[in-house]
Amino acid sequence: MKETLNIETERVDDIPLLLAHMQRMNLAELLDKHIPTHGNRKGLSLGNVMMVWLSHILSEANHRMNHVQEWAERRIEVVRGCGIKTFEARDMTDDRLADVLRALSSDIHWVAFEQELMGNLVRVCDLQKECIRVDTTTSVAMLK
User: pLDDT > 70: what percent of the chain?
Assistant: First the structure.
C-alpha cells in the first residue's frame, strides 16, 4: 500500500533574519524582565509575542492586528525553526496583541526597558584627540 505524502510549503522571507537579530539584542528577555504580565496567561511570553509581531510588521509592512494570526498560521514551522519552539498561531490573536500594546504603554516600564536595551546596543569608545579632521560638504550654498 502506498502512503500519502503531504507537502506543506511555508514562505520564509526575511523572518529568520529579523528574529535572529532581535534574539541577538535579547529583546524578548528584556521585555519579559521589565514589563510585568498577568500570571494566568498561557502560551508565549510577552517578549516572544512582541518579537514575532514585530517580524510581521517589518516583513509585511503592515501594522494592523487583524492580519497577524492568519499570517502566523502560514508560518508556524518557520517561527519554530527560529528558536521559538512553543509557537502557536493562537498566540497572535487580536486580544493577545492588544494586551501587549497595553503593557508597552506604561512609561515607567518602557523607560527601564529602553535604558537597558540601549546600554547593550550602544558602544562608547574613548578616542584619542591627537588630530581632528573636518571634511567640507560637497554642496555649495549660494548667498544673494
Answer: 94
Could you give the C-alpha distances from 125 to 117, 122, 128, 129, in angstroms and in order? 18, 10, 9, 12
What global pTM score does this model have?
0.78
| Cα(68)–Cα(97) distance, integer angstroms | 9
Q: Is 19 exposed, middle or buried (0-12, 13-18, 19+ CB in 10 A)?
A: buried
pLDDT of residue 1: 67
Beta carbons within 8 Å of 56's beta carbon, 6+ residues apart: 62, 67, 68, 71, 72, 92
Task: Map grid coordinates 514575532 to a residue.
Answer: 52
